[in-house]
Each structure stands twice: as structure tokens, then as C-alpha cells.
Design a protein that fits this description.
By secondary structure, the protein is an alpha/beta fold. A seven-stranded mixed sheet has the order 3-2-1-4-5-7-6, sandwiched between helices. It is globular. The N terminus is likely disordered. It has a single domain, classed as Vaccinia Virus protein VP39 (Rossmann fold, 3-Layer(aba) Sandwich). It binds S-adenosylmethionine (SAM). S-adenosylmethionine (SAM) binds next to strand 2. The site of S-adenosylmethionine has 20 residues, from strand 2.
């Protein structure tokens, strides 16, 4: 089961989508010359908020900022399925060549028309002839890694699929935030029933189905994740941690208590209870 947080409040942002979409992606060579030294330095400029609402509100603009800074054009959205980042027209307008990946051919059958699709398991065997090793400049995913059984293998595969200097961003929920810990511990049947009661659109046959979650390597701790990402081949690694969620928004009292808990956890940087993370990595230029 996946709890999905798209709470009501609008986070303050320093970069609007309009700002980063005004110019299409610049050619790689020119952009590389102006790149900040590290991904962490780039994120400093984006000034992310501690609350996860920022992560939801700024997912697209962050991806566009990365594409623009590093001159990345060939984008693969992992597990994009029926709900990819951009339509074909939007991708084209932003100078991006978007391929939508999913493990499930049924999901890809629902991908909006005009987008290129690639059906494969991001944690699987990459020897299939239509899988382009080194063929992507940017690989992104939202609410996918918690469903992947072997996330270290997924990151190793991403390293193989990226071109030199390519970037990947994965946005996922993290343990041991209490809401996701409960989701993880409860039997699938019980967690499914709770999600279906709270979010009718996520019932089977609805527009936003629920997929089983494993939470392998779904943590917000830099100390925990960095050695695994280094083993996968990445040296430039950034973990953007978020706290808070919108699940208790309609539960007065609990909402305020939970917000206070998360605000305190964010203030002291308590990794153990992050709710979401962006993991962002860059492959060496070789
Ligand atoms: C919760 S949905 C998220 C869909 C979309 N990214 C979004 O944010 O709305 C998870 C998607 O990941 C896909 N998925 C799960 N495991 C995968 C894997 N190992 N490789 C590629 N896609 C996978 C599922 O089929 C599903 O389409």
C-alpha cells in the first residue's frame, strides 16, 4: 500500500515552473561549463522547504532545473505508467525527449498518446535488445522505488542506463515515518482496505490504483544511503530529506500534534522519521 500525500497547503517556493520552463534545455556542452560543482550546491539554490509539500509541488520544476543546469535532454521516467510527468506536447515544448518506462504493459497501455514507452523492470536484467544502455541523460521516478523489490539493483541499472554526466532523481516515501511504518507492518489486505476507505480513487479500477510496497532502501538517511549509491557507481550523491505529510489534514488535533512532531524532527534533522526523500545522483562524465 502506498499513502500518497498531496495535502492542501501551498508551500512557498523560490522557483516557479514558469521560471524554469521559459527557456528550453540548453545544449549539454554549454550547460556543463556553467554547472554548479555538486548536486547539493544546485539544491542550495532551489532552497527546498523541510515540509514534504514542497517535494510534491516542486517535483516537475526540480526536474526541469536539473535538465537545464546540466543540459539533459533524453529523459526516462521510471514507473511513469498511466500518469507520466509530461504529455508529448509538454515535453516537446521543453526540449525534452521523454520515454515512459513501466514494468507493467497494462500501465503503459494507458500512457497518453504520442509518448515513447519502454516496458522493463528497473531492477531486472538489462540484456533485452530494446534497452538502451547509456541512452538516457536524466532518469526520474515518483512513488515507484517503494514498490521495487531490489532497489540497489535498480540504482546499479540506472547507472548503466545513464549516459556519462547523466543525472537521476527518485522521489519516494521513507521509513520509519509512522504513517509509512504502519503501512509497511500491516498485512497488505488491511492496508489496502484503509487506503480504499480514505481515498476512493485508489480502489481497484479507479484512476489511481494501489501497488504493493516493499520500502527496500526507502530511507531518508544520508549515512545509510550513500554507501549503497557509491556501490552502484555514483560519486555525486544528494539526499534531500522531507518531513510531514497531509494524511491527517482532515483530523483536527491529530493534524496539529503530528505537524509539531514533524517540525521538531526537521529542526533537529532526525533522519529516522523523514516522510519522503529525493535521492539525486550524477554519473561521472568518464
Ligand atoms: C504508485 S505508481 C506511480 C505512478 C506515477 N509515477 C505517479 O507518480 O503517479 C507505481 C508505478 O511503478 C511501476 N513499477 C513498479 N515496480 C516497477 C519496476 N520494478 N520497474 C518499473 N516500473 C515499476 C508500477 O507498475 C506503477 O505504474
Amino acid at each position: 500500500m502506498v499513502f500518497r500525500g498531496r495535502g492542501g497547503q501551498q508551500a512557498e517556493t523560490t522557483m516557479s515552473l514558469a521560471t524554469v520552463t521559459a527557456n528550453p534545455v540548453r545544449p549539454a556542452m554549454r550547460a556543463a561549463a556553467q554547472s554548479p560543482a555538486t548536486i547539493a550546491a544546485l539544491f542550495d539554490g532551489l532552497a527546498p522547504d523541510w515540509h514534504s509539500q514542497w517535494a510534491w509541488d516542486n517535483y516537475e520544476s526540480t526536474i526541469l532545473a536539473l535538465a537545464q543546469h546540466y543540459g539533459l535532454r533524453r529523459v526516462c521516467e521510471i514507473g511513469g505508467g498511466r500518469d507520466p510527468l509530461f504529455s508529448a506536447e509538454q515535453a516537446h515544448r521543453r526540449g525534452l525527449e521523454l520515454t515512459v518506462n513501466d514494468i507493467d504493459a497494462g500501465e503503459l497501455a494507458l500512457t497518453p498518446a504520442g509518448l515513447k514507452t519502454a516496458c522493463f523492470d528497473i531492477a531486472g536484467d538489462l540484456s533485452e535488445p530494446d534497452i538502451a544502455r547509456g541512452g538516457y541523460d536524466l532518469m526520474v521516478s515518483r512513488m515507484v522505488f517503494e514498490h521495487v523489490g531490489d532497489v540497489e539493483r535498480a540504482w546499479t541499472n540506472i547507472h548503466a542506463l545513464l549516459a556519462p554526466g547523466g543525472v537521476a532523481l527518485a522521489f519516494f516515501p521513507t521509513l520509519w515515518a509512522p504513517v509509512f511504518a504502519l503501512n509497511h507492518i500491516l498485512p497488505e489486505k488491511a492496508s489496502r482496505a484503509i487506503v480504499h476507505a480514505l481515498f476512493p480513487a485508489r480502489r481497484d479500477g479507479g484512476g489511481d490504483p494501489k501497488f504493493p510496497a516493499h520500502y527496500d532502501w526507502c530511507r531518508g538517511s544520508r549515512a545509510t544511503l550513500t554507501p549503497m549509491l557509491t556501490r552502484a557507481g555514483f560519486s555525486d550523491v544528494h539526499i534531500q530529506r522531507f518531513w510531514g505529510h497531509g494524511y491527517f489534514d482532515r483530523m483536527p488535533g491529530l493534524k496539529q500534534a503530528d505537524h509539531a512532531f514533524n517540525a521538531l524532527a526537521a529542526k533537529i534533522g532526525w533522519d529516522f522519521v523523514t516522510t519522503y526523500a529525493y535521492v539525486v545522483v550524477r554519473k561521472d562524465r568518464g
